[in-house]
Each structure stands twice: as C-alpha cells, then as structure tokens.
Amino acid sequence: MTVDPKELKDAAESPFDSFGLDSLGLLGIVGELENRYGASLPPDSERCRTPREFLNLVNSTLTAGA
C-alpha cells in the first residue's frame, strides 16, 4: 500500500487508520527508517496515532541524538 506524502501532510492530524495504515504498517515504516538512517526510534513508535505525532517523535529522536 502507498500513501501520497501530500495527503499525509494535508491531513496530519487524521488517524493513520484513515489512510488504511495499521500498527503493523507503521512498524514497517519504523523499521525502514531505522535501517535507512541507522538511528533507532523508541520501542513504542508504532503506537503513534497520527502522522503529526509520528513526525514529532522522529524529529525529537533525531534532535536528541544530534
């Protein structure tokens, strides 16, 4: 499944399930980001409910590691 990044941006406060993405899908995204960038995200990252919440978590994790 693919979600248009613009759609995520425009509806950043909408729950992930409104995009057809469940916690397993988000876990896949977490794994891909960790593999691609070599940075670990918090263990409960897949529990984020909205794109905004997930983006804030990723940004705060990256900022803390900088």
Q: What is the H/E string?
A: HHH
Gyration radius, rounded: 12 Å
Number of strands: 0
Counting H and I runs of at least 4 residues, what is the number of helices?
3
- The averaged pLDDT comes out at 88
**Largest sheet entry:** none
Uncertain spans: none
**What is the general shape?**
globular
Strand content: under 5%
Secondary structural class: mainly alpha
Please characterize this protein's 3D structure.
The protein is an all-alpha fold. Helix content is 55%, strand content 0%. It has 3 helices and no strands. It is globular. The protein starts with a helix and ends with a helix. 9% of the residues are buried. The mean pLDDT is 88.
